[in-house]
UniProtKB/TrEMBL annotation:
HAMAP family: RPE. Catalyzes the reversible epimerization of D-ribulose 5-phosphate to D-xylulose 5-phosphate. This is Ribulose-phosphate 3-epimerase. Binds 1 divalent metal cation per subunit. The active site is at D36, D174. It comes from the Bacteria. Its EC number is 5.1.3.1. It comes from Methylocystis rosea. Its cofactor is Co(2+); a divalent metal cation; Zn(2+); Mn(2+). Signal peptide: none annotated. Keywords: Carbohydrate metabolism, Isomerase, Metal-binding.
Length: 226
């Protein structure tokens, strides 16, 4: 559990060349690949489904970190597990049966994550802490890349770090993560940084520098980068 994980979000990749973009990010030093699944219902945007994730699975051995922004979610969990996802994260706001969704993910042999929208209180996690491997704090309103980090989420990150205690749960922060915001996020207790626009900006020749810059920013907060 040591070290900060850098997880570029392919939401900011060139969708016409997703395989090549994923490989380039892996070669550039990414730790995980973050995949944003949106349905145009839970969030006002549509991206891709398990077919695209299955197509990317042979491209990299990195952890595929799947962020499901879809409702309903339960009917699709098995398909995302079969697609080759390693971590499957569902939203607490998704419906009344969060615990059931998490049980289903773990029963399929995958790591289970819970995400909270910016307005959702951390108490939503209280009764599932022993059923999860990852908590994802949305630090922008979900749906789009390139938005600004919402500073109020730093208090939530701190509160969740307290709640986690000695449990082996990763605390992921997603939205507006840049070399400027990363130090505060890591200081507050985040240990997985999702970066879309900050990781992909400038094109493939810049990816290694972008990742290195995020890693340096995280380390400047006193964390040990992996
Ligand atoms: O879940 C997401 C949006 O709903 C994305 O992972 C997130 O927005 C990443 O993009 P950026 O780093 O540009 O903010
Ligand atoms: Fe995401």
């Amino acid at each position: 559990m040591t070290g900060v994980v850098i997880a570029p979000s392919i939401l900011s990749a060139d969708f016409a060349r997703l395989g090549e973009e994923t490989r380039a990010m892996a070669d550039a030093g990414a730790d995980w690949i973050h995949l944003d699944v949106m349905d145009g219902h839970f969030v006002p945007n549509i991206t891709f489904g398990p077919g695209v994730i299955a197509a990317l699975r042979p491209v990299t051995s990195l952890t595929l970190d799947v962020h499901l922004m879809i409702s309903p979610v339960d009917p699709y969990i098995a398909a995302f597990a079969e697609s080759g996802a390693d971590v499957i994260t569902v939203h607490a706001e998704n419906g009344p049966h969060l615990h059931r969704s998490l049980q289903a993910i773990r029963a399929l042999g995958k790591k289970a994550g819970v995400s909270l929208n910016p307005a959702t209180h951390e108490s939503a996690l209280q009764y599932v802490l022993d059923d999860i491997d990852l908590i994802l704090v949305m630090s922008v309103n979900p749906g789009f890349g390139g938005q600004s980090f919402i500073p109020s989420q730093l208090d939530k990150i701190r509160a969740i770090r307290e709640m986690i205690g000695r449990r082996a749960i990763r605390l992921e922060v997603d939205g507006g993560v840049t070399p400027l915001t990363a130090p505060q996020i890591v200081e507050a207790g985040g240990d997985v940084l999702v970066a879309g626009s900050a990781a992909f900006r400038g094109g493939q020749l810049c990816y290694a520098d972008n990742i290195a810059e995020l890693r340096r920013a995280a380390a400047s907060a006193g964390a040990i980068a992996v």
